[in-house]
C-alpha cells in the first residue's frame, strides 16, 4: 500500500512538472527551478490532503442512497447509438435555427412546453434535460420530479418533445421497450395560456 502511495506521489510530481514545462515554454534554470518548487509544493499539500479523509461516513451514505435510487442500469451500446443520434439532431436543429434567424420573415414563434415523463430514474431525467438544452432552439427551464418546462424558439424546435422521440430515445438507454414515455403536454404561447 505504501509503495502504491509513493508511486502515485512521484507520478503526480512528474505530471505536474511536465505540465509546467509544457505551459511555460521556457527551459532556463530560473523557470525550471520555479516549476520544481511549484510542483513540490502542490504535491506536498496534496499528500497531506490525501491522508486525511473528509466526511468518509457521509460519502458512503450518499453513495448508498444513489445506488438505491438507480436500480436500472444504462445500456452502453445503446448509449453510443444515442450519442450519434443526438449529434445528428443537434446538426439538424442548428440548420433550422440558422434558417429561421437568417430568413427575412423570421418564422420565430417562442413558446413554453410543459410535459411530464415516465422515465425510469433521476439520471434519465438529467440526460433528457441536458439533451434538450444541447439542442439548438430549446432550453430546459425547469425540471421538478417528472415535469419539464422547456422554452422552444419555434414549433419545429419542440417537435422532438411533442412527438415523444427525444424522451423515447432517453428511455431506451435504460429499457428495451419503454412504452409511452411522455404523459401530459401543454404548450404556452402567451401569459393568457397559463
Structure description:
The protein has helices spanning about 1-25, 30-50, 55-70, 75-100, 120-135, 160, 165-170; strands spanning about 110-115, 140-145, 145-150, 180-190. It is an alpha+beta fold. The protein has 2 domains: about 1-50, no CATH class; about 75-194, Alpha-Beta Plaits, CATH 3.30.70.250. A 4-stranded antiparallel β-sheet has the order 2-3-1-4, covered by helices on one side. Helix 1 (about 1-25) packs antiparallel against helix 2 (about 30-50) and helix 5 crosses helix 7 (about 165-170).
Supply the key terms.
about 190 residues; alpha+beta; Alpha-Beta Plaits; 2 domains; four-stranded antiparallel sheet; 7 helices; extended
Helix percentage range = 55-70%
Span from first to last CA?
62 Å
Coarse structural class: alpha+beta
Radius of gyration: 25 Å
* CATH hierarchy class name of the largest domain: Alpha Beta
Strand order of the largest sheet: 2-3-1-4
Number of helices: 7
Number of domains: 2
In short:
The chain is α+β, with helices and mostly antiparallel strands and 194 residues long. The protein has two domains: 51 residues, no CATH class; 118 residues, Malonyl-CoA ACP transacylase, ACP-binding (Alpha-Beta Plaits, 2-Layer Sandwich).
Please outline the helices and strands:
Elements: H1 2-24, H2 29-51, H3 56-69, H4 76-102, E1 111-117, H5 122-134, E2 138-144, E3 147-152, H6 159-162, H7 165-171, E4 182-188
Antiparallel strand pairs: 1-3, 1-4, 2-3
Amino acid at each position: 500500500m505504501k509503495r502504491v502511495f509513493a508511486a502515485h506521489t512521484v507520478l503526480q510530481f512528474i505530471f505536474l512538472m511536465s505540465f509546467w514545462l509544457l505551459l511555460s515554454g521556457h527551459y532556463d534554470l530560473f523557470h525550471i527551478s520555479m516549476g520544481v518548487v511549484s510542483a513540490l509544493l502542490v504535491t506536498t499539500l496534496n499528500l497531506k490532503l490525501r491522508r486525511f479523509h473528509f466526511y468518509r461516513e457521509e460519502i458512503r451514505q450518499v453513495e448508498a442512497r444513489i445506488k438505491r435510487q438507480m436500480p436500472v442500469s444504462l445500456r452502453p451500446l445503446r448509449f453510443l447509438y444515442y450519442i450519434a443520434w443526438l449529434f445528428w439532431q443537434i446538426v439538424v436543429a442548428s440548420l433550422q435555427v440558422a434558417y429561421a434567424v437568417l430568413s427575412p420573415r423570421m418564422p420565430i414563434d417562442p413558446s413554453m412546453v410543459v410535459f411530464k415523463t415516465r422515465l425510469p430514474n433521476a439520471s434519465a431525467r438529467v440526460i433528457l434535460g441536458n439533451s434538450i438544452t444541447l439542442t439548438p432552439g430549446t432550453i430546459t427551464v425547469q425540471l421538478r420530479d417528472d415535469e419539464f418546462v422547456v422554452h422552444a424558439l419555434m414549433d419545429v424546435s419542440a417537435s422532438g418533445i411533442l412527438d415523444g422521440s427525444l424522451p423515447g430515445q432517453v428511455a431506451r438507454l435504460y429499457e428495451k421497450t419503454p412504452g409511452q414515455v411522455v404523459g401530459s403536454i401543454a404548450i404556452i404561447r402567451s401569459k393568457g395560456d397559463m
